[in-house]
Design a protein that fits this description.
The radius of gyration is 38 Å and the shape is elongated. A hairpin with a 5-residue loop joins strand 6 (about 250-255) and strand 7. Helix 1 (about 5-15) packs parallel to helix 4, helix 2 (about 20-35) runs antiparallel to helix 4 (about 50-90) and helix 5 (about 110-125) crosses helix 8 (about 230-245). The strands form two sheets. A seven-stranded mixed sheet has the order 1-4-5-9-8-7-6, sandwiched between helices. It has a two-stranded antiparallel ribbon with strand order 2-3. It has helices at about 5-15, 20-35, 40, 50-90, 110-125, 135-140, 175-190, 230-245, 295-300, 320-325, 335, 340-345, and strands spanning about 125-130, 135, 165, 195-200, 215-225, 250-255, 260-270, 285-295, 310-320. Helices cover about 40% and strands about 15% of the residues. It has about 350 residues and is of the alpha+beta class. The protein has twelve helices and nine strands. Bound molecules: phenylalanine. Phenylalanine binds near residues 219, 291 and 292. Phenylalanine (PHE) binds next to strand 7, strand 8 and strand 9.
Length: about 350
């Protein structure tokens, strides 16, 4: 080895000893084997050498270059290990042998009832649709045969947003979009529209044991040729007896909603007091559970469906109320209260 090569090598080894992080290591790499590095520089001296000398000197420089590379790699590995050790020492103690905390969360009673209804309707061929909570005036009212000045708007103390949109006051706000989504399959392929769409609704209500400003409904629609009120009653009764696991007494009263004609209120006998009368049923023995009716021709038209050819029913099931009935919850405010002690007592098999 020529004295010059030896000197470069020794200098490199000494400098490597002092390297304590990756940045310094990279610097050293560039300093020695970069384009203008000491090792590369050695080759400049070759010009003055004979061919034979060039060969040995070239080999010598190459060997040195490889050695430098190997030593750099070794150091890199050493530094990486140190970094990991340091990282680990900063981590909190983590003992994988400690048994897991078996206290698990629980589903909200409304989620439980919603899923159960979804299963029943899915088994009857309905699709489950999701829809936004912020909707337009058109979707929530106009498309449902409730023009700007219609008094029916007063019943739905609506929260309007600054931009003219609103928080949906009923799940019916999704009807128009769903008719439009499925109308082609109905008209061209004869596929009945059968959809349910659960959702959170908002109304500016004063809260008490049976009123909340935030509650859940589950809307359902079915449109085809020759759909009648009997179809509606059949689906409602089937769903309710599945949810409550027994035959449920229902009654239909006339009800007014501009988007159905005729319109009804479907009541079930109060399951909390057994029909005798209590605060939850306003002492009537009956609970308004599901307004419903035959879809108004104007509403079908707005959805792009010819009302002379097709008919359908719609219902707006009060999911919150249904959950209260099913689980015997007396105060609606408990559902939005967020108390885990209250909410975690409900399970699907009650
Ligand atoms: N959207 C109505 C409400 O919440 C309920 C309803 C739905 C009535 C479907 C008839 C048909 O007031």
């Amino acid at each position: 080895m020529t004295p010059k090569t030896l000197e470069v090598k020794q200098n490199f080894c000494a400098a490597l000893e002092n390297v304590s992080n990756m940045e310094q290591l990279e610097q050293l790499r560039v300093e020695y084997i970069g384009k203008k590095g000491y090792v590369t520089d050695l080759l400049k001296d070759m010009k003055s050498l004979s061919n034979e000398e060039k060969k040995t000197f070239g080999q010598e420089v190459n060997i040195l270059k490889n050695e430098v590379n190997d030593k750099l790699a070794e150091k890199r590995e050493e530094l990486r290990k140190k970094e990991i050790e340091l990282e680990n020492s900063r981590m909190p103690e983590f003992d994988i042998s400690i048994p897991a905390d078996l206290k698990r969360g629980s589903y909200h009673p409304i989620t439980l009832v919603q899923r159960q209804c979804e299963e029943v309707f899915k088994s009857m061929g309905f699709v489950v649709e999701d829809y936004s909570e912020i909707v337009t005036d058109y979707e929530c009212f106009e498309a449902l045969n409730i023009p700007k000045t219609h008094p029916a708007r007063d019943m739905q103390d609506t929260y309007y947003l600054g931009n003219g949109q609103l928080l949906k006051s009923h799940t019916s706000a999704a009807q128009n979009a769903i008719y439009k989504k499925y109308k082609d399959a109905l008209i061209n392929e004869g596929k009945a529209i059968k959809a349910i769409f659960p959702g959170r609704c908002f109304r500016n209500e004063a809260t008490d044991a049976c009123h909340e400003n935030t509650f859940f409904q589950m809307e359902g629609i079915m449109v085809d040729k020759n759909i009648s009120i009997s179809n509606l009653i059949f689906f409602m009764k089937t769903m309710l007896s599945e949810v409550f696991k027994k035959d449920i007494k229902v009654r239909l009263r006339p009800g007014f909603f501009p988007f159905v004609e005729p319109g009804f209120e479907l009541d079930i006998s109060c399951l909390i007091c057994g029909g005798e009368g209590c605060p939850s049923c306003k002492h009537s023995g009956w609970l308004e559970l599901c307004p419903c009716g035959m879809i108004h021709p104007e509403v079908l038209k707005a959805g792009g469906i010819d009302p002379d050819e097709y008919t359908g029913f719609a219902f707006g099931l009060g999911l919150t109320r249904l959950a209260m009935m099913k689980f015997g919850i007396k105060d609606i405010r408990d559902l939005n209260g967020g108390s885990l002690k209250t909410l975690s007592q409900f399970t699907d098999d009650k």
